[in-house]
Hints:
This protein has 5 helices and no strands. By secondary structure, the chain is an all-alpha fold. The radius of gyration is 16 Å and the shape is elongated.
Amino acid sequence: VEKFYSPSYIGALFKEYTGMSFTEYIMKCRVEKAMQLLESTHKSIENIMIECGFSNRTRFFSHFKEKTGTTPLRYRNMNKEK
């Protein structure tokens, strides 16, 4: 017997097991990837933003600052790999 679950049910299960919504999890992953790229590459912030799935610069900066407490450029300058 096949079972079908609603998106809201799956979302509730996801939040129960991870402590965050699916959207919050995706944003966390995108910002973490941006952090890694800022530390380890010379790619432009604009290219990193696009590569990490952000299409809006304002949203990228807002999410990045919310998660890290700083802007992408400041983060890069403070965390450059030697």
